[in-house]
Amino acid sequence: MVNVSSSSEANDPPESSSGICGSTQSTQESEAIDKPPPLPLTAYENHHYHHLHHASHHASSAPPHTVQPEVLACLFQSDLEKGLTASAATTRLETDGKNILENDDGVSVLSILLRQVSNSLTLVLILAMSLSYGTKDWIEGGVITAVISLNIVIGFVQDYKADKTMQSLLSLSAPVATVIRDGQLVKVSSQDIVVGDIVKIKVGDVVPADLRIFDGMNIECDEALLTGESLAAAKTPALTFDDPAIPIGDRTNICYSSSTVTKGRGAGIVVGTGMRTEVGRIAKMLKANQGSIKVASSDDISSVSSLSSKDSQSYTQHWNKFKYSLKNSLGLIGTPLQVKLSKFAIVLFAVALILAIIVFSASRWMVDNDVLIYGICVAVAVIPESLIAVLTITLSVATKAMANGHVLVRKMQALEALGGVTDICSDKTGTLTQGKMITRHVWIPDLGDKQTISVSGTTNSFSPQSGYLEIGGHRVNPADVINSNSVDTLVMFLKAIGLCNLAKIECKKPSSDVSFTNEKSGDHVSRNRSNSQLAQTQALEWIGYGEPTDISLQVFAMRFDSGREELQERGWKLVAEHPFDSSIKRMSVIYESPSGKRIVFSKGAFEALSNSLDASSYSTEEVHGRINSMAQDGLRVLCVAYRLLPSEPDIVVNRRESVESDLKFLGLAGLYDPPRLETHGAVLKSKVAGIRVHMLTGDHPGTARAIAYETGILSDTMSLASQSHAVMVAADFDAMSDAEVDALPELPLVIARCTPTTKVRMVEALHRRKAFCVMTGDGVNDSPALKRADVGIAMGLNGSDVAKESSDIVLTDDDFASIIRAVEEGRRLFDNIQKFLVHLLISNISQVILLLCGLAFKDATGVSVFPLSPLEILWANMITSSFLAMGLGMEEAQPDIMHRPPRDLKVGVFTWEVITDKMIYGTTMGILCLGSFVIVIFGGNGGDLGEDCNHGYNGTCGPVFHARAASFAVLSFLLLLTAWEVKHFGRSLFSLDPIRHPGTFSVFPALYYNKFLFWAVIGGFLGTFPVIYIPVVNKDVFKHLGLSWEWGVVAGACVIYIVVVESWKAVKRRTGLWSGKLTVTQEVMHAVEHGATAGSVSVVSTLSSRPSSSHDGYMVEVGSEEGPKLVDQNKENIELVNVRTRHVHNK
Q1: Per the residue annotation, which of 370, 427, 801, 831 is the catalytic one?
Q2: I want to staple 752 with a disulfide (CB 3.0 to 4.6 A). Which of 213, 592, 704, 849 is the partner?
Q3: pTM
Q4: CA atoms within 13 A on the CB side of 713
Q5: Burial class (CB in 10 A: 0-12, 13-18, 19+), 98
Q6: How many CB atoms are located within 10 Å of the residue 834 CB?
Q7: Does 423 participate in catalysis according to the annotation?
Q8: DSSP collapsed to 3 states, 713-761
């Protein structure tokens, strides 16, 4: 049996820590300290240890669960009410370090270096270098050595920067904790918490550090990570234990770092951070016995008990570490796309070996030095050496761009998948709307003719001074409202919304003539002002903490001096609390009044409270009519009720079902949460992009419908089939079987009174329809839906830590428009990956064709003549192509990127268009390079292939060296032109961006728009000439000579190549093939970009040349008298909005 002693009650204000310290200061000064305390104090705490009183001396020599919170506060120089000062927290953070576990998961320099050395290209180059040195070809060997070194250095720098960027962005998504500093509630990164901080925790939070709880209500934590117990542990803030050696699981006044709050709320003082927490101790044990630790998971912790089998585990651990390093070096660890492309690179390596065997077979396996070098050249030509490096850089750039757009990517798979999103399931409050609620109307039936109190003119949703009250269209003063009503219903209603509430409202700049929440004036807080005085307080800075619903109700109560803190100052004491639960949609508290009566106050959706209400206390018809009226105005409607408990203690207040019965109806509160200004445009943009937006909300169906129309989710132009099930109540949706849901023509666009279970069913229904969905969430109960969705998005401002941990992406601004920006960025990323992939593969295909066909050219000794020298191949691959690929990875989004349907994720990056384009362009390029070689040799030099021209220059090698230079120039220039051609797979090079750059000479600004790619191309053009003309370098290193008349051949090849590419693009546009069917006219693009309203554009061209059954996108209908309507294949109209200025006339 554990003996405990009770400290002050959990809800009583704690004794001032400064008072305790001060009363024993003289005693402490005379004491000697014999040994360091067993409590793992930091350097900062040890520095102040000798200046503490006797109580804190006892605390420092005892575990924190045996010490009262006030004494710990004194020990840590903190205050339970005001917390640490900001300066003290900064000092401790600098002294003791961040609140993180020491691990080996940072950027590994050795791992990055190993990736550069162990890739297939480097291994082939090392082999070529060895052969060159073995044959005493010092120049070629030296150049290859320089190329290898340059490749490793550049790749290392790029990968290191990319990994550092990813690490810094991941740290931004670290949990945020709510702490008290300088007497103010502030949010700080969990990594910045220090010992002595006062931390507030609630349901869904991950406990950021070891806390000695001193205040709490129904708080329970999941500590399976530490104790292995599957059930959550109930916490007892009021208890202080005597036994210092009781098990961790029995220390119920401690909340441990990394545990999860599953119920209730509380506050505690930090007693351990980082490696000085219980989780940190386990991490230290694992690190000592295993050599490293990644994350203190439950599997790691359970392995502590089996440390006796350390020897048998050592072999397995080393083998697993070797396999991990091998896979990592081969690129087989990463996102699905990275792994797929790494496997593709390995396949190409195998193809390179096969091609080398073909070369050896062509020489009848008489493999001398020249044949061996030629085989290596073919192998090098087929490997896209910069593929993985460019992919890593592109992903890093995209992630950083999304972070700048308020989107933090936690899992890179989500970044790749965003381009294929077909459906977005979004919350309403705070995402589609501003999340700044205002209690617009309060309806209390007992007030007779003056039943409704309205708030108007509000400019600050947090300020009880902002705006004015109206009854019957007349302005009134709060005090006059109270004094003119003899019934107690209004007073009880105000107490209910003030006390059944967890929000806190503060004013940071109080003036001398107004008393606020933190200024006591007797039994009341003076805040009533006449309407003429209200304007004087508008400049004050008001801050609200808590849920938007609670904040709006608290502000309304404070207008009548009935805020929670005000009532508590008058003697109201919290007895029990039953927090809001999204599954039952209500909250209740039990308070003891100053006269000793216990009263239950409840609030929630009327449907959730109706079964608990005394039917005689309200008129069902009247209440339903009022609810529907408010909901149609877009107001969120809450029911407020109360119950006076009997004096005898025959009711267990901690049992929800006992207190939430026989409640008396008090009234209704209508809360207005305006849609975000950017939401309507974002919803329209998603519709144009072929993405359906579903709103899943806990609000009344009428409220949900009104907001859906305001935001554009619903419209009057929807088909009858769509309208029939566009809005559903969760109870009806949940009651349907899967077969019935699948039989619906379309899934509902709005689900009201939504529960977490409904969200999961919605995701499953979308998956059965082969849809790829995004789900947003912020609560603990949203975690299952976030995990099941293809992309789970958590709210960064108001979301719980549990929801964030379950998500793939975190929105730092909780804004729906940020989701659309993320989808756009995902599409841009996918486009760019396809662009540089096509460019790299075109280069490889062309070189393989050239070199394999080159086997047919034999000199006088019967040796195959190289159409390209090994170093020419390396230059084209390592210098020319790499920078072009990086430039393509930095391409900005095309103007029509959000006017295409979502891509099919099953197909991946290797679409039929990509495969066809690379084969057509690569084959054309290879034939032109081969043709230029043939023309120079046979057309200008009579077919003279000289003798022994692969190894070096002699008098017979002039024609071969000139032909090589021509082939090299053609290859280089065509690669440079290809980089510009693949900027868009369907548009002409001469009309790449008709929206940003219209006009006859639009090609020039369109090419310059991507400055990195532009200068990479220009640099490639200019860099070709020194390689061809500089003496010694051209003849001895690259084994070619300067060109003269051969430049005409090069120019002709470039013209032919452009004609072929442009002709193929024209065929795609003409036939509506692949990207060709998404060609958009400038007029339509302008109208859609600016959201053209139906009727604003008289006649426009079609968005698509013809409908296609395989195309789920949209087209613009021509010739309608009402103007253009964006329609899908079923001719269901979707209106274009917001622009009424531009008229496009038929030409």
Answers
A1: 427
A2: 704
A3: 0.78
A4: 28
A5: middle
A6: 21
A7: no
A8: CCCCCCCHHHHHCCEEEHHHHHHCCHHHHHHCCCCCCEEECCCHHHHHH
